């Protein structure tokens, strides 16, 4: 038999197999409910390809990655049907911290075993919990989320009724991920790109738009530095209260904050053998925030009244809506000023830009006691988080410290 007649079909079969395994993607999105107002999509095949490429170019990680996957368990062997696009969504009128996802199961028994290996606690009725993560299994599907409040509603909406099928192209374009905000029939989408040293979220591929903002603020060293106009205040206030931006009359917000470790004296009392009260002093190191907050207002009097109506100002003229006490709040002709009383940070120069910059600080770690060691390691690897806006263009960068490995292999 002619070898060419055998080789050609084999090559074609191999090419078809490679196409379906690596390039072909099922773009039907069946598990996004109609009342979702935000959707995160992860292109699983693109992310996997990026991981394999980086792994192949870093031979030092070959042996380590194998041992790590064996000890921690692999999703591939967990009885889950890995989707081409992982669908994570937020429901309208729920807390900003509540996010959900629906997955198909190949073997629910294997998936339950996987959950137990990951230290999920069996809560009964096919529900499991590990810290802030919740899972409910129903037949060949599972609903996972950072809350279980909407599990029953999602079960009825998605698994018991025919849900409309969306297309991935509505939410994502050639990036490893995306986050989209839904308002009626309008979808505003932002790409998520995972680079060697940073994660970028943006709705415009022209990075020069934000380079001017970044260059202006990179020279400082404050833990927190931000400046927002009325539109950005309105956008961020939607996560907390839809009316706060308009009711408070605030049209400009600028703040600077630093972290400092100070000694705190704790006074307690005990009794000696003669039942005399004895004062006892102990000392501990605590992390203190020093800050300066400036609100510009169209009507400072109405802003003050709004804060009082919310009971954010106490009898000692302290602003109680933020947890960093003590502070002093005052009113002037232009608006409201809030300063930490022990030591105030110097307000950075006005740049007439919209940005939020949070720099990493080792003093921050003392307040992260609830996080796992792996989560603390990831946070400590971050150098800064930067948000910027100019007109209709938005951009966020999570910048990691320089390292020998790209982020996809580090995290």
Describe the structure.
It is built from eleven helices and 21 strands. It is α+β, with helices and mostly antiparallel strands and 411 residues long. The strands form two sheets. The protein has a 19-stranded antiparallel β-sheet that branches. A two-stranded antiparallel ribbon has the order 1-10. β20 and β21 form a beta hairpin. The protein is globular, with a radius of gyration of 26 Å.
How would you briefly describe this protein structure?
This protein is α+β, with helices and mostly antiparallel strands.
- Mean of residue pLDDT? 86
Number of helices: 11
Task: Work out the helicity level.
Answer: 25-40%
How far the N terminus sits from the C terminus, by CA atoms, comes to 52 Å
Shape from CA axes? globular
β content, as a range?
35-45%
Blueprint of the fold:
Layout lengths: L2 H21 L4 E2 L6 E8 H13 L5 H11 L7 E2 L3 E7 L8 E6 L2 H10 L3 E4 L2 E4 L2 E6 L2 E5 L5 H10 L5 E2 L9 E7 L2 E9 L3 E5 L5 H10 L6 E6 H8 L6 H4 L2 E22 L5 E21 L2 H10 L17 E5 L3 E6 L13 E6 L13 H8 L1 E9 L2 E8 L6 H4 L1
Antiparallel strand pairs: 1-10, 2-4, 2-11, 3-5, 4-5, 5-9, 6-7, 7-8, 8-9, 11-12, 12-13, 13-21, 14-15, 14-19, 15-16, 16-18, 17-18, 19-20, 20-21
List keywords for this structure.
411 residues; alpha+beta; 19-stranded antiparallel beta sheet; two-stranded antiparallel sheet; 21 strands; globular
